[in-house]
Write a structure and sequence with these properties.
37% of the residues lie in helices and 18% in strands. With 217 residues, the protein is of the alpha/beta class. It has an eight-stranded mixed sheet. Helix 1 packs parallel to helix 8. The longest helix is centred in the last third of the chain and has 18 residues.
């Protein structure tokens, strides 16, 4: 959502050069969140341009309705919000895995982390929202670092191999604290100050970002 469509190809090439793990893809229905974006044709365009996995984040009511629209490919990642009128979240995680994709749940700032316990054996990752979902550039929720620590501790206690990703205001300064709190993946965009300034600026910012985060480990 942070790359203009006419800049997509050159950004994808820059992402490949930078060896990013995935392309984050926000799907919003205008109901669960006020914003509306991104559609199936845009997803298909990305899949034609690159072999980088796409990380589909369903910010939609009744997320199970949207899975077949996108038809995620093998090695893609798909997460959804359990609180978004999702009747059968465990079944949806199974369906995601049946596509060959990685299955995860997204935890909003006010979503209990106990959902992790109920679906532990179906989770490949947990996406922790550090901002109120819906728009890029949101302010970080003050309790995000403590929530990450609690998620990390729960996953360790459950003995599952699930990644912890963070979405929202992942600046270098915040990403370092998030990494120290247990996160091992970051959704980066305008809020992290990596995107929005063109491809060359992204390349420069990316190197500095990765270097700073790796030094903090």
């Amino acid at each position: 959502m942070c790359v203009r469509f006419w800049e997509l190809r050159e950004h994808i090439e820059a992402f490949e050069e930078a060896q990013v793990a995935s392309v984050h893809f926000d799907v919003m229905d205008g109901h669960f969140v006020d914003n509306i974006m991104l559609g199936t044709s845009y997803y298909k365009d990305i899949k034609l341009l690159t072999k980088i996995p796409v990380d589909i984040h369903l910010m939609c009511h009744e997320p199970e309705r949207y899975l077949s629209y996108f038809n995620p490919q093998e090695n893609d990642w798909v997460s959804f919000h359990v609180e978004a009128r999702c009747d059968h979240p465990y079944r949806l995680l199974q369906r995601i895995r049946d596509c060959g994709a990685k299955a995860g749940i997204a935890l909003g700032p006010d979503t209990p982390i106990t959902y992790i316990e109920e679906m532990a054996d179906m989770l490949d990752f947990v996406l922790v929202m550090a901002v109120v979902p819906g728009f890029s550039g949101g302010k970080i929720i003050p309790g995000s670092f403590k929530k990450l620590s609690r998620v990390h501790k729960m996953i360790q206690n459950l003995g599952i191999n699930a990644d912890i990703f963070v979405d929202g205001n992942t600046t270098v300064e915040n990403a370092i604290k998030m990494r120290q709190s247990g996160a091992n993946g970051f959704v980066v965009g305008t809020g992290s100050r990596l995107l929005g300034g063109g491809v060359e600026q992204f390349k420069k910012n990316w190197k500095e970002y990765i270097s700073a985060v790796e030094r903090s480990i």
